[in-house]
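User: hey, got a sec? need 33 kDa chaperonin folded
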Amino acid sequence: MADYIVRATAADNQIRAFAATTRDLVEKARSVHNTSPVATAALGRLLTAGAMMGTMMKGEKDILTLQIKAGGPINGITVTADSKANVKGYVGKPDVMLPPNAKGKLDVAGAVGVGLLQVIKDMGLKEPYVGQTVLQTSEIAEDLTYYFATSEQVPSSVGLGVLMEHDNTVKQAGGFIIQLMPFTDDAVIDALEKKLSEVTSVTSMLDAGDTPEMILDKLLGDFGVQITDKVPTSFCCNCTKHRVEKAIISIGKKDIQEMIDDEKPIEVNCHFCNTNYEFSVEELKQILKKSK
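Assistant: Yep! Here you go:
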């Protein structure tokens, strides 16, 4: 099953919902960054959330960035997504290893640590929207639930999960976001809360063969759920040698000249997809001519 996101409404548009299956994109991130199981789980959860939240944006060129800055050994997570659900991301220390938590699960909260969640939406305006909240559990899903409630004033329920194989590849990954509109009836809210309290983990549903549509039917079937859209999603980095060259130009003539004076080629790494770009001394001389 290729990765995709479904968007839906329920209860006569009082509820909007998103559900995703993201195994392939999380596995791609794992292989690109060679992440440990706990780092894969943490990054995979935020990538899945970023992909779904990306589809909430309207503009073709809108960019969403989710950043976790915290004191745990993973040393932070950064994810960016566009409105077409192309997503990319990385963790500060991909090889972090931790013992399981008290429930015998991957200790994502321990890896992430105490800190902040920052949501940046660049919608082509003079200044991007920036929302910031304190991490509540560092499990990521609950932290995003808190972010939506406090920064965007949208009561939400977020579920995210990554299930690993014994060989440390990704077996299942996915998530859902369910949001209440301001005019939602109290009876609908109460019934939805009861339904959500009965839910097992996202990964257990995916592992049982449930599709995103089936997950939303389980959660919202009693409320007349209607699927409105299906969007493919993938791990996709838009870096190119030309874009990296522009980044080198931006550092200024003095620093570029120092690189040339070293008489050695330089290598520039893209954090998001771990691709290395090499520039020869001759190429650096050409870049110097273009810089101001």
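Quick note: The mean pLDDT is 92. Let me know if you need anything else on 33 kDa chaperonin.
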